[in-house]
Specification:
By secondary structure, this protein is mainly beta. The protein has a single domain, classed as SET domain (Beta-clip-like). The protein has 1 helix and 10 strands, in the order αββββββββββ. Strands 1-2-10-7 form a 4-stranded mixed β-sheet, with no helix packed on it. Strands 3-9-8 form a 3-stranded antiparallel β-sheet, with no helix packed on it. The longest helix is centred in the first third of the chain and has 8 residues. The radius of gyration is 14 Å and the shape is globular. The mean pLDDT is 88.
Length: 115
């Protein structure tokens, strides 16, 4: 019963579901075809100043500082791709192109080497 409750915790998004990923562990996949520019979901969680496996870092341009969100919903399973099909506008994720049903949804973590 506990495993079923845990799985159901990540099954509330009408646009996406969590499944086994060929990229890494688990990933986020399209329930149905998602059109270019369509809203996919919002990265939800507590604000954090500490880095971690499921922390999304967003630049607050008004304050010119990075803010972390410790992911608690299905969005925490997004994997990286150099050719992503989605991207964030603040904490909201949108499709960069058409995403086919059952296709893994990815975004570019945008890690850059510091010199």
């Amino acid at each position: 019963m506990k495993a079923r409750r845990k799985a159901a915790r990540y099954d509330n998004n009408p646009n996406a579901y969590v499944g086994k990923s060929p990229i890494h562990g688990r990933g986020l996949f399209a329930r149905d075809t998602i059109g270019e520019g369509a809203y996919i979901g919002t990265y939800e969680g507590q604000p954090t100043e500490n880095d971690g496996m499921h922390v999304l870092w967003l630049l607050d341009e008004e304050l010119d500082q990075w803010e972390g969100i410790d992911g608690k919903n299905e969005m925490r399973f997004l994997n990286h791709s150099d050719k992503p099909n989605a991207d964030f506008w603040n904490a909201d994720l949108y499709a960069l192109r058409k995403i086919d049903k059952d296709e893994e949804i990815t975004f570019d973590y945008n890690w850059e080497e510091q010199e």
